[in-house]
Amino acid sequence: MADSDKAVFRVQINGPIEEVWKEITRQDKPQACMFNSQLHTRELKPGEKMQMRTKSGKFVGVVGEILEFDPPRRYAHTFKFTNCDDPPCKVIYDLEQKDGGTQFTMTLEDLPAGTKTAKQMLQGGKLIVNTLKRVVETGKPALGVRLLFVLFRIMEPISPKSQRVENWPL
To answer: How crowded is residue 87: how many other Cβ atoms within 10 Å of its Cβ?
Structure first.
């Protein structure tokens, strides 16, 4: 649900908080819940730049700066799509052990109203939390999401040159 510049997406995951944390902070392989993008940063700590790159590592879809890093409870960063000129917003992940599993909350703040960023973030929020739930509980995303990853891989060569990794140094 969204206010003018804020949206909250929450899901209960039947899995330990450590597994959920591992999935949203992993750097060793693409994160299925983040549209199969891979997190890159020098270090997971406040003040460091972060990027979400395509599976091949050739293109950067998102850049930001880590704002908070408190394992395994909170991770927050700024968020800017590299394919548009919209101002950055904030993404905050809160995890809480609850009812034998993990309550995961993704909060979007400072969404630039009426922008492509706001539209895509609001559309993608539910998919992110549901895919995270599915990956932690079953080990893989739903078939429709996996098919979306195939489409992303097919379309990667036609990504704008402005998104090439050499244009976005860490």
So the answer is: 11
Amino acid at 87: P
SS3 31: strand
Alpha-carbon distance of 40 to 62, in angstroms, equals 10
Q: Report residues of the chain scoring pLDDT below 50.
A: 1-2
Sign, CA dihedral 150-87-60-73, equals negative
- Across-strand partners of 77? 66, 91
Q: List pLDDT tens digits, range 77-121.
A: 999 999 999 999 999 999 999 999 999 999 999 999 999 999 999
Q: How far apart are CA 23 and CA 4, in angstroms?
A: 29
The beta-strand segments (E) located in 82-116 are 89-98, 101-109
Cα R_g (the chain), whole angstroms? 15
